[in-house]
Amino acid sequence: MDLKNFKDKLFAAAKAAGLKEYELYCKRASSFDVSIFEAEIDAFKSERTFGVSFRGKVGGKMGYAFSEKIDDAVVAFLIESVKQNASIIEDEEEEFVYSGDASYPEVVCYNPAINDITADTKIEAAMSMERAALAVDKRVENLTYCAVDSTESEVYIANSKGLEVQNIKNRTCAVADAQVEGEDGQVKTAYDGFDGLDFSKFDPVVVGQKAANKALAMLGASPVPSGKYPVVFVPETAGDMLETWIAAFSAEKAQKGFSILAGKIGEKIAADCVTIIDDPLLPGLEATTPFDSEGVAARTKTVVDNGVFMTFLHNTKTARKDGVAPTGNGFKSSLEMPVDIAATNFYVKPGTLSHEALLEKMGNGLVIAGVEGLHSGANETSGDFSLAASGFLVEGGKVVRAVDQITISGNFFAMMKDVVAVGSNLEFKLGDSTNNTAVPSLYVSCLDVAGS
Question: β-pairing, 330-331 with 40-58?
């Protein structure tokens, strides 16, 4: 059945059933993925998915239902499922469907040329990454993961208040994860990758070589004495840290008492050099979108302005409760889930100093190039963390050797107040469809380090 025809039949049935307001959310997706191991195809997958989610208000409660197909029988199923689901909802906060905005931004998130990239081209690209990595040094044992994929998705939303929006996006992605072994038996891994709309900018040889060189640089690592150290976080690690505590910026978390930032709008929560932006309009990124899962028009928000907390991220329900306009951050994590809150392209505004200039400014200290335990050693509510880390010792502004077997500890939000300078090297890589974080190199004045 045609989607628009299905929508008309569903909405007519919903009205006849007495639903006060209702909404159809539809998502179509396709993906191709190939991974290589030792010059052979390790895994090959090509799939297409389709599904619809329907929500409707019954007796003041919003019920949800979903289906992976559309036909006349599904119309009745969705209506009845919404009624049953609404009858067991215990949340006292009333939900509403959004009536839409006067206009929606144009965004760059689709490149038709991606459809012309053949499977053979993607396979050869993955092979090239592996060959390039292995050719760097005899200590490169293998690539534990080496893959190229492409994805395309389309979202359509329509509701009883007249909203009707549609968007299509696609992209390609590649990852090379190299494993190396030193003469002393020490084993290290590191990855590099590509993510974007323009496949012609993907150089598999460069990606493979970078992954290998990153791993090789960590050989010979050893701990440093315990103490307090100035540190510079590399972008990948700084981005992982920000993503871990991104929920603190959710209005829903704040309203439920699970955000350390509750009640702190207008207060200083970071150093003067820290500005955090949520921008769904940046060209070519995975989280770029003209609207959220409720059909609210996307817009750029300065969340932290020179250290001052400016706004939470809102969906329509939290915005109504706080008496503010929704920020366009209401997203569904899957078809069967209700609308939650998520960031889009969430990043720290870059400064003017290169990574190398930050090391010179620091003089003596540590580069933190990787952390482990963000799911177990980080408290998302308080901001406290204790994480296994690795990186490099810096003396006189220069890297002198690799470091591992250390633990860094502190509080993320206190640490953000201790940022001395932000690097210029902002780069979104291997992004997510929501909560796509990016942070340049961060120079932090002092961090507790447990080592030898």
Answer: unpaired
**Rg for the chain, CA atoms, rounded:** 24
Quote the CA–CA distance of 414 and 432 in Å, as a whole number. 27
pLDDT reported for residue 91: 74
pLDDT of residue 34: 97
- What is d(CA 230, CA 367) in angstroms, rounded to the nearest whole number? 9
Report which secondary-structure segment, H or E, holds 210.
helix 204-217
Inform me whether the pLDDT recorded for 90 exceeds 90. no
pLDDT tens for each residue of 149-167: 999 999 999 999 999 999 9
The CA-CA-CA angle for residues 374, 380, 386, to 5°, reads 45
Q: Give the tens place of pLDDT for each residue, 378-411.
A: 999 999 999 999 999 999 999 999 999 999 999 9
Residue of 235, 237, 258 lying closest to 248 (CA atoms): 258
Q: How far apart are CA 289 and CA 421, in angstroms?
A: 31
Q: Which residues pair with 52 in a beta bridge?
A: 26, 67
Helix spans in 218-364 (H):
235-244, 251-255, 316-322, 355-362
Q: Give DSSP secondary structure letters for 237-273.
A: HHHHHHHHTGGGGBHHHHHTT--TTTT-TTSB-S-TT
Dihedral angle sign, alpha carbons of residues 425, 427, 430, 431:
positive
Contacts of 147 (CB under 8 A, 6+ apart): 33, 34, 35, 36, 43, 126, 174, 175
* Average pLDDT value for residue range 424-442: 92
